[in-house]
Structure formats: C-alpha cells, structure tokens
Specification:
This protein has 11 helices and no strands. With 294 residues, the chain is an all-alpha fold.
Length: 294
C-alpha cells in the first residue's frame, strides 16, 4: 500500500471516529438532559416539602456548576479529559437506565448534564485548533446526534428510551456505551499530555458555555415530536414522519452549505449567506408564541 492510500485511510478513520464519538456523545447528552428536566418537573417539583423556588434553585445551581467545571481544563490533560467525559457520560447514562430510585437518577442526570455541556465545549476547542472540521465533522455529527435521538424517541412511540425497562433498551444503551468508550480510546492518543487550548482565553470558554444551552434547547424543541403533534394536531406517527423528513432536508442543506462550487465562489458565498440568514430567522421565530385556535 503506497503512502497516499495510507494517508487517505487515516483521514477516513479520523473522520469516522470523531464523527461517531460526537454523535454518541450528543445522543447520551440529550437523553440525560431529558431525564434531568423530567425528574425536576415530575419528581422533585411534586414533593410535598419542595417548593417551586427550590426546584429553580436546584436547576440554577446545576447550570452554574458548568462554569466551575472549567477547572477540569486546567487540571487534566486533553487525553485524560476526553476519557473522563466518555467514562462519566456512559456511567451516568447506564445509571439512569437501570436505576429505579428517583433521587439517584436526578443527581446522576444533573452531573451528566454538566459533563455533557463541558464536553461539547471541549469538542469546540478541537474545532478551533483545527483538529476537527466545523462543517465536515463537528456540526453534521452534532445534528446527527439530535436526529438519532429523535429517531429512537419515535421508534419507542415517544416513550423515551430512558424510561424503557426491557432487554432491547438495555442492549441498545449498553451497545452505545461500549461503542463510545471504544471510539474514545481509539482517538485519545491524538491528544498526548497537552493542556494548551487555542480558544482565545477563558472568556471564550465561558461565552460558549452561556451560548450553547440556547442552541441545544432550540434544536431540542425543533426535534420534539409531542410538541409538534400537539400544536399542529398531528398523530404521533405523522409528527415523527414530518420531523424525520425535516432532518433529511437539513442534512442536505448542511452539505450544500459546505459545498465548494468549482469556479463559482460567488454562488457558494451567496448560498452560505442565504442559509445562515435562514437559520438565524428560524432561531428568532422559535421564540414566537404559538397561534391558538378560536
């Protein structure tokens, strides 16, 4: 095998390993976040000796811990950090799946939410270091994670995987966890013992921490089968089909966005600007109150 073939194989493996890692990270993160929000609302809030203010304080403290988690970037090497994120998220996800004691699941999902948000910042730092590509690896893998989560959600009839108690659900979760750990071990040698992050300083890190929850919550809303069905009057299957079709369309747009049109740089630039404006408009309109029927 010549050097060119070896380099191409290494490049393909790099793309597949990092994309798959980010995808599973996103699937686990969204499922953990869903568990956290559900337990806050349906368990903690329903306790007779717990007020709504206390629930709010619990949520605020959890998200404030994300800021403190920035210390991890100073303590651990990059290799140790990516292994920590994988092990932590897998452990939390398995606890939530097999555990039936709500207080433990709530605490675990709170920890998992913090780890997930910080892990996304870690992946963004890899984009800034040009270790992975924003449009060819990070963003498509991130969106694939959202789409896969919705697909799993719809497959179980909107009764989320985290609440399933059967052999199929256990097999699926353990398979994802095993794959996530294996992928992380495979890519971890890329990082060595470095602690250097070329992200413009700690201010950029904390700006990303503030911004990313907004992005995730908006996308999570767009992927909500139950909300779409309730607003538009669809049944569950139709709502799922609409969102699945939208996800396919979105993937097409993503690849149009990064398409390099030979000899047509002006067209490529125009297309990218148009799609960026459309994405911004969609984010703004997501805050618009739903229209109510008479």
């Amino acid at each position: 095998m010549d050097n060119t073939s070896i380099k191409n194989n290494q490049k393909n493996n790099h793309f597949l390993f990092y994309s798959a890692t980010i995808t599973i990270n996103t699937i686990f993160g969204l499922q953990i976040l869903n568990s956290y929000v559900s337990l806050l609302n349906n368990f903690l809030r329903e306790r007779p000796n717990i007020s709504l203010i206390q629930v709010g304080i619990y949520a605020i403290v959890t998200f404030m811990l994300v800021f403190l988690a920035g210390i991890l970037f100073m303590i651990f090497t990059k290799k140790a950090l990516i292994l920590l994120f994988a092990a932590g998220l897998c452990a939390v996800r398995l606890i939530i799946q097999v555990n039936s004691w709500a207080p433990l699941s709530l605490a675990a999902s709170a920890l998992g939410t913090v780890l997930w948000m910080v892990s996304i910042v870690f992946f963004i730092s890899l984009v800034q270091e040009k270790k992975i590509s924003l449009f060819y690896e990070f963003f498509p893998a991130l969106f694939l994670g959202f789409a896969a989560t919705t697909g799993i959600y719809g497959m179980f009839g909107t009764w989320d995987l985290i609440w399933q108690d059967n052999a199929a659900s256990y097999f699926l979760v353990f398979s994802f966890a095993a794959a996530y750990l294996w992928l992380t071990v495979k890519i971890s040698p890329d990082f060595g013992k470095s602690r250097q992050y070329f992200d413009g300083g700690m201010n950029v890190f904390y700006t990303l921490i503030v911004f990313m929850p907004f992005v995730f919550l908006q996308l999570y809303r767009f992927q909500n089968i139950a909300a779409l069905s309730a607003v538009l009057g669809f049944n569950t299957l139709t709502g799922f089909a609409v969102i699945a079709a939208t996800n396919i369309l979105t993937f097409s747009i993503i690849y149009l966005f990064v398409l390099k049109l030979e000899g047509s740089k002006n067209v490529s630039s125009w297309l990218q600007n148009l799609l960026t404006a459309a994405a911004f408009l969609m984010a703004v309109l997501s805050f618009w109150p739903e229209a109510k029927g008479g």
